[in-house]
């Protein structure tokens, strides 16, 4: 399907991470728990995204690049993995809110309104912002979910890429794996 090994590998891991994110959201949905602003689901999603990026970049480094990866390539791989995963998750949210349960969007609007009121905004300001929120469609909602997952994934990719960056000393044939305590830096 893809000839570029980076895209092929990140598409595979992005698909796996996206599938697991969807599975976690479905478990919460079928238990009648919120899939919008549930702190437990948020923590689970963050753990799954970090794990997916870590394992995907590690496997890409070990199998495709023979154990050596620079920061730019590790960061790019992490972004692509989470980009594909976020696409799948956004498609799931779109189908869920468009065809099965539109109350999820209303729940998000109510949560935002409650947060604005608790933050101390005046009622006229809350009404103005809520008049904009009332026009949220499943497509806009899914796009916002995609964007939030992507931004979170970019931050996680920055950190993961830092730990995977390596420079090979061409005259030393020893392993350069930081996780196996190599001194070849």
UniProtKB/TrEMBL annotation:
Q: Where are the transmembrane segments?
A: 12-31, 37-57, 77-96, 140-164
Give the source's domain of life in one word.
Answer: Bacteria
Q: Which residues form a coiled coil?
A: none
Keywords of the record: Membrane, Transmembrane, Transmembrane helix
A Pfam family the protein falls into: DUF4199
Name by which UniProt lists this protein: DUF4199 domain-containing protein
* Biological classification of the source: Bacteria, Pseudomonadati, Bacteroidota, Bacteroidia, Marinilabiliales
